[in-house]
Amino acid sequence: MILTDLLIIGCGPAGMMAAIYAKRANKNVHIIEKSSPGGRVRSTFQVENYLGFGRVNAEELVNNMVMHLRDLGIEDDYGTVRTVERTDLGFCVKTDDETYCAKALIVASGTRPKPIGCENEKRLLSRGVSYCAVCDGFFYENKPVVVIGGGDSALDESLYLANISSHVTVVHDLDQFTASKGIVEKVMRSPKISIRQGVDIVRFQGEDTLESVVIRKHSDQSEEEIVASGAFIYVGNQPETAFLAGINVTDKQGFIKANTEMATSVPGLFAAGDVTKKDYRLIATAISDGAIAALGAVKYLDSLQPRR
Ligand SMILES: Cc1cc2nc3c(=O)[nH]c(=O)nc-3n(C[C@H](O)[C@H](O)[C@H](O)COP(=O)(O)OP(=O)(O)OC[C@H]3O[C@@H](n4cnc5c(N)ncnc54)[C@H](O)[C@@H]3O)c2cc1C
Question: What is the helix (H) or strand (E) element at residue 226, kind and residue range?
Answer without folding.
Answer: strand 223-227
